[in-house]
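Appendix B, example 12.
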Amino acid sequence: MSDHSEGEDNLEEIITEEMLWEKIPEVEGLDRANTYYELSARIYARGQYDEALALAETARDIYADLGAIAPAEGLAQAYSAIGYNLNQLKRMNEAATAMSKAVELLRETKSPMAIELACTLGEWWYGSKEYEKTIECMNQCVQEHLVDGNDSGAANDLHLIGCAYRESKNYQKALEAFKESRALFKKLKEVINVARCDQKIAHCLTELGDAEGALIAAQKSLDVFVTAHDHRRETYSSFELGKAQLAAGYYEEALMTLENVLESVTEAEYKDFEFIIDIERKIALSLTKLERVDEANEIIRRLDAVTEVIDEN
């Protein structure tokens, strides 16, 4: 019985798509734009992103040519479809540009979909390393989420803002954003997310020269991840702890912590060489501080050989 129903459903989907293709020569204007958009959505769901993109672009062109006759939501949904397809095709900057047009149109009509797409847009700008645009986009999302009483949404927005500031090496602004995010996550009792903020707060404090504050924040995050048996995040928090210990002048402790982190990372199946190099450079610095200069120099010599390979074009 269920197999027969499933077959009927599949047939209905196929007929519907065929009907959409057959409909295109018969319709004009808004109906034609909507048909192209519907086809784009179906083909996107099958993973044929190039074809879906072309159909979404055709829909956009028709909506745009119609001007005031077409609802702004139609043009916005076409732009968002273009964005999603470009994102799947790894054309991140173009995807974000298309999505920004969708968000702008939806905000003009005060659509509730605007905030959801704006958050997606912020993530895409971040993925494109457009950190100023990320911050600008997410600051608006924070305000909208707070007005709506959505503390969870605002907390996630602030976390991304903090990450963007951190990537821009504006550690003071990053620290402020992570602290605000942490306060909201704590209010919501989201323990893992509080610890994620603490880990990044530790990083910022180390960069800002507050080693003792960084030690406290790193230890807090580490305690949570150890308790949760979240080994991946435990590794990164341990790295922040080792950096804070090094900055605070606890060189023996730093060396022990960093060597444990290195062991954990190198035992993983996937070798993140950039992270491994970062850890080993900190180990070399710890050894230098402990006056074990020959060992430190050997690590640096070996790392230089590895980075030469990584940096080759």
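The chain has two domains: 1-129, 191-313. The two ends are 59 Å apart (CA to CA).
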